[in-house]
Design goal:
Largest interface: B-C, 110 and 110 residues
Number of helices of chain A: 16
CATH architecture of the largest domain in chain A: 3-Layer(aba) Sandwich
Strand content of chain B: under 5%
Number of helices of chain B: 11
Structural class of chain B: mainly alpha
Largest sheet of chain B: 2 strands, antiparallel
Radius of gyration of chain A: 24 Å
Distance between the termini of chain A: 53 Å
Structural class of chain A: alpha/beta
Oligomer: heterotrimer
Helix content of chain A: 25-40%
Helix content of chain B: over 70%
CATH superfamily of the largest domain in chain A: Periplasmic binding protein-like II
Number of strands of chain B: 2
CATH topology of the largest domain in chain B: MetI-like fold
Order of helices and strands of chain B: HHHHHHHHHHHEE
Number of domains of chain B: 2
CATH class of the largest domain in chain B: Mainly Alpha
Shape of chain A: globular
Radius of gyration of chain B: 23 Å
């Protein structure tokens, strides 16, 4: 089911949407406000904006709206006509994280010019969007789910106007109303994955399944772990039966000791598990599920497993930043990526499963049916999500991570 | 003398070969069929047309070159003046100025990058831009130029300029006709260093770039997660080719003839040299 | 001002010069300031001021929500930063920088000498050829080294093909690859200042020394080397100091055992979200490096350039 933009809407519609975006209100909130202080008072800013001489958005048509018309176009539960988007959109994302033609399709459909900037790692992303606490000049970005509560609290995110994202109904039940963002107020889910390990059977014989394989001395000098402190400590946690979200110093000390035992065997803490495995630098490595999918494009024999002791299930999200200069186009981008066909195209390109139930039938069977990329619900239940840590708690991890790495 | 010449020349040839070895590899791999830059999978020239269709990459190159140009000009001027002044004059603050010169080099790039990020974001509400990157680059390039010029100017005999003044030259004239030519090689060397520094900078730049001002190093570094495609090799190959061709023509047109009628050394003995 | 730099006994004697000399110092002082001022002003605004901000940050801490707070400025971060746990990383940084600098000087000096003495008409061309690889992207050149040094890369495959080795040697992700990469990256920073210094050496001085029965090596040690010492010092500065803060090369070419202090600082700022602590550690590193450099310079000036 695709979404068609309607004819250019009225000036009132445009001002209404802008007002809602600026005030971080949904239409439901506006209705509540009208109930509180009366229609005239609540809608006065919108009326004033309609009567203002210029409109900063790219809306070509302006209907002469009277004040009474403003009151009578108070929102109803039915889907409203699509407002006209701005002419540009600034997206900030990982490299190679969507299908190669997604941007082109979006540009063609909505006549919006997309400027697509990339970051090499999540920390650069966070530093950039938090630099002015409003998103660093970008409209949309893709943060990990663990970041959402912190970002929302700090006012970095724009509250979503869900009426502009009707494709939310495509979401699988697992993903509506997630713990990290109840009601999907600030984010829509993007991809989800598992973190297990991959190995090259030509170099590492045997059918491996446990995390202990990563402590096997026979792999010395050819072993890799991810350069991600939470993920690495999580692996130690799974081996010791401790929670990857623990804040107990005693627990963390145990994990650190175990990791220190492993360090002499580790060749590198890698940011490029795909490259290192396909080039043969690493024979066995801690890896993300979607990355494994990309590895086998170049080296089909590589295997991957999600160990039964436990593994991390992660997902990331799409958000709109509070300083977004193109909020309407941003909402359209979110909606577009939740479209079944687009979502399936993205997944097929890079191997990470999306949250889109409606897209399942369109995804490459090799991905959908592979229990490693798309574990069944029973396995998914046992996976653990990494949760947001308060700074004092994160410090406990960071100081030990630095001690490990130094 | 000639024996030493042979060994030295052989050594030089070896080092030049090592300097260019990665360049050869990167040129060869620009024809690699694999999307990832690691394993040779066959010959193709497809990456070159794809490169020209890749607006983002070309934009990044454009930004990088513009920034480098601005940074080189400004830092060469400021740095040369600074280096010259430090070398020639003893004044009360010269020790402090020397230390000031060393500070940007001692500063870890991440500290310099973040300090400018905070500076521009909080004081000027800037979110990163080409101008901001250029300012950052000028800031760290000045030191390199100044140190290079200072080394040369420190060995220069100040009496030469005095002699020119004694012979009737004005202060500006003496400066222009005596001092400047003597430090010119150091200024040129400083400019070349500044260009290399600016062109390649990653850390400081990534904290000062904004929407639409991605530079080539940022673009490339952001690609590591999913593999550096041979498109980037292609663009590097083209840069090497363009510069080589320009050099070739410059050489043919005699830009490097190196005929210097007068080689003036510091000991004051002016002697004609074969150049 | 200019007269103080002249050697003793070369003072002016003519009355005309004496009068001119009396006027000159003021002009020279103004001229001197005019030379220094633009650069100093720029650095003051765009370097010192931001650095001062970071200094203030380093005295702060984070509140429960992770925001920077300066409510109680203190030196806790500095005390924390001297943890012995970081010593291996610091030692790595020092080791890599020192070796890189020595190698760059050892390789760069002969190259600079060769270009200057034997380059002839093609001197400048040869110099630009040295720089040419460095006008392509540094990251790409580093990736090229990865292709060369990998276990199944160009070098290992070549050695195996020739029969020198049976199994690939681990070249990448080791100390060797880090030092190789750093030396490669810093070589032009060493060659250029040394070239500039060597080029102004008057060959007649060397010839004179030889005429006075000095052997080739004595002439080099006692004539060439001292005269070109400013260039060597500049080259050492331009290599050692930035090498300590180099984060990218050891990160790309190194492995689990080659972590540098620059990487630790990076982690603190990024995934650790701890700007105050990262700033403090960074400042400590700066102070130590600066102190060491100034001491080394002063010693050099006393011993060598006296």
């Amino acid at each position: 089911m695709t979404y068609e933009p309607s004819a250019p809407s009225s000036r009132v519609e445009i001002e209404l949407n802008r007002y809602l975006a600026e005030q971080r209100m949904t239409r439901r909130d506006l209705l509540a406000r009208i109930a509180e202080i009366g229609a005239v008072a609540a809608l006065a800013p919108i009326v004033a904006a309609c009567q203002a001489s210029t409109s900063p958005s790219a809306a070509p048509s302006v209907n002469a709206a009277t004040p009474s018309a403003a009151a009578s176009t108070a929102p109803t539960p039915q889907p409203t006509p699509q407002p006209t988007p701005e002419s540009d959109l600034f997206v900030y994302n990982w490299d190679g994280y969507i299908a190669p033609d997604t941007v082109a399709k979006f540009q063609k459909k909505y006549n919006v010019k997309v400027k697509y900037d990339k970051f090499p790692d999540a920390d650069t992303q966070m530093t950039k969007i938090r630099s002015d606490s409003k998103g660093g000049g970008y409209d949309v970005t893709y943060p990990a789910s663990t970041e959402i509560s912190g970002l929302a609290k700090d006012g970095v995110l724009l509250q979503l106007d869900q009426s502009l994202i009707p494709n939310l109904k495509n979401l699988a039940p697992d993903f509506t109303n997630p713990d990290y963002d109840p009601g999907n107020k600030y984010s829509v889910p993007n991809y989800w994955w598992t973190t297990g390990f991959a190995w090259d059977p030509a170099r590492v014989p045997g059918d491996l399944s446990s995390w202990t394989a990563l402590w096997d001395a026979s792999h010395k000098g050819h072993l890799g772990m991810l350069d991600d402190q939470r993920e690495v400590f999580a692996v130690a946690g799974f081996r010791l039966g401790l929670s990857p979200n623990t804040t107990s110093e005693a627990d963390l000390d145990q994990m650190l000791a175990l990791l220190k035992q492993q360090k002499p065997l580790v060749r590198k803490y890698t940011e490029d598990d795909i490259g290192d495995m396909t080039s043969g630098q690493l024979w066995i490595s801690h890896a993300w599920s979607g990355d494994w999918y990309q590895m086998i494009a170049d080296k089909p024999k590589i295997k991957y497993v999600v160990p039964p002791e436990g593994a991390v299930r992660g997902n990331d999200t799409l958000v709109i930043l509070s300083g977004a200069k193109h909020p309407i186009a941003a909402h359209l981008w979110l909606n577009f990526n939740l479209d079944a066909e687009v979502s399936a195209a993205n997944t097929n390109a890079i191997g990470y499963m999306g949250p889109n139930a409606a897209a399942q039938s369109l995804i490459d069977p090799a991905i959908v049916n592979d229990v490693r990329l798309n574990p069944p619900a029973a396995v998914r239940e046992k996976l653990v999500e990494l949760l947001f840590l308060a700074p004092a708690d994160l410090d406990k991890y960071t100081s030990r991570w630095n001690e490990l790495r130094a | 003398m000639s024996g030493r010449n042979r060994w030295l020349t052989a050594f030089a040839a070896l080092i030049y070969a090592l300097l260019f070895a990665p360049i050869v590899v990167l040129i060869v791999f620009s024809f690699n069929q694999s999307r990832r830059n690691f394993v040779w999978q066959g010959f193709t020239t497809d990456w070159y047309p794809k490169l020209f269709a890749n607006e983002d990459l070309l934009d990044a190159l454009g930004v990088t070159l513009q920034v480098a140009l601005i940074a080189v000009v400004a830092s060469t001027v400021l740095g040369s003046l600074l280096g010259l002044g430090l070398a020639r004059l003893r004044f009360r603050g010269s020790g402090a100025t020397e230390t000031l010169l060393l500070l940007p080099m001692v500063t870890p790039e991440i500290i310099m990058g973040i300090s400018l990020l905070i500076f521009f974001a909080q004081l000027f509400e800037q979110n990163g831009s080409l101008g901001q990157i250029a300012i950052a680059h000028i800031t760290f390039c000045i030191s390199y130029v100044a140190v290079t010029v200072r080394a040369r100017a420190a060995g220069m005999d100040p009496r030469l300029e005095e002699a020119a003044r004694d012979l009737g030259a004005s202060a500006a004239g003496a400066f222009w006709h005596v001092t400047v030519p003597l430090i010119a090689p150091a200024v040129a060397a400083g400019a070349m260093l500044a260009f290399a520094l600016s062109f390649d900078d990653l850390v400081v730049t990534s904290f000062n770039a904004g929407v639409g001002s991605t530079t080539l190093p940022i673009y490339i570094y952001s690609s590591i997660k999913f593999g550096v495609t041979p498109q980037i090799n292609a663009i590097s190959t083209i840069i090497v080719a363009v510069v080589s061709i320009a050099l070739f023509f410059a050489w043919r047109l005699g830009a490097f003839s190196g005929e210097r009628p007068l080689q003036v050394s510091d000991e004051g003995a002016a002697a004609p040299s074969p150049g | 001002m200019a007269t103080t730099a002249a050697p003793a006994g070369a003072g002016t004697t003519s009355p005309v010069a004496a009068v001119a000399e009396y006027r000159r110092p003021l002009i020279d002082r103004i001229a001197g300031l005019a030379l220094i001022l633009p650069g100093v002003l720029w650095l003051a605004i765009f370097f010192l001021l931001p650095l001062a901000i970071i200094l203030v940050v380093s005295l702060g801490s984070r509140d429960a929500a992770g925001h920077l707070t300066l409510a109680q400025p203190n030196l806790n971060n500095y005390i924390e930063a001297t943890r012995p746990a970081y010593l291996p990383a610091f030692a790595n940084s020092l080791r890599y920088s020192a070796i890189t600098t020595l190698l760059s000087l050892a390789i760069g000096y002969p190259i600079a000498y060769w270009i200057s003495r034997y380059g002839g008409r093609r001197k400048v061309l040869l110099l630009i050829l040295v720089m040419l690889p460095f006008w392509t992207s540094y990251l790409i050149r580093t990736y090229a080294w990865m292709i060369i040094l990998r276990d199944n890369g160009v070098l290992n495959s070549g050695l195996q093909a020739v029969g020198l080795i049976d199994e690939p040697i681990a070249l990448l992700n080791t100390d060797f690859s880090v030092i190789l990469g750093m030396t490669y990256g810093f070589l032009p920073f060493a060659i250029l200042p040394m070239y500039v210094s060597i080029d102004r050496l008057d060959q007649h001085l060397v010839e004179a020394a030889r005429d006075l029965y000095a052997s080739g090596s004595r002439a080099f040690l006692h004539v060439t080397l001292p005269i070109t010492m400013p260039g060597i010092v500049a080259a050492a500065l331009l290599t050692f100091i930035p090498a300590i803060g180099d984060y990218v090369t050891p990160d790309l070419l190194g492995g689990a055992q080659t972590t540098t202090i620059a990487k630790i600082i990076q982690v603190l700022f990024t995934s650790g979200r701890n700007w105050p602590y990262g700033s403090a550690l960074g400042f400590l590193l700066m102070v130590v490096t600066l102190a060491g450099t100034l001491v080394a310079l002063r010693t050099l000036r006393r011993e060598v350039l006296a």
